[in-house]
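Need tokens for this chain, all 119 residues.
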Amino acid sequence: MSVEVFEKFESRRSTKANQASQSSAELGYIVRGTDNDIAARDAAQANSPATYDTLPRQSIQIEPIGPQLWDVAVCYGSSDRGVGGNPTYADLSTGNPPVCEDWQESPKCTTLVAFVLLR
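Here are the structure tokens for all 119 residues:
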């Protein structure tokens, strides 16, 4: 079976902030046809845009959800750095939550989104 990549229906979550460095987006995909996590990640990278709404791709997180089936989150955001060398993001108190938290430390972009949406 060849590796296939499908964009999820609930994909394309985004936050457009007044400062470009605080804007972010997440595209969700399902990858099927491989048990290899590297092959799944590479397929998602090859099938996702390098930029989305002028935001560069920053990270790709994968999670197995079944035999030869992967849930993928592709995070986009500014590479501008804030204080201390960390990227800057929208403030949760503004009502415009960031889609992806610090991609250097976050295990999965959607974890923050789920937290914010369930709040």
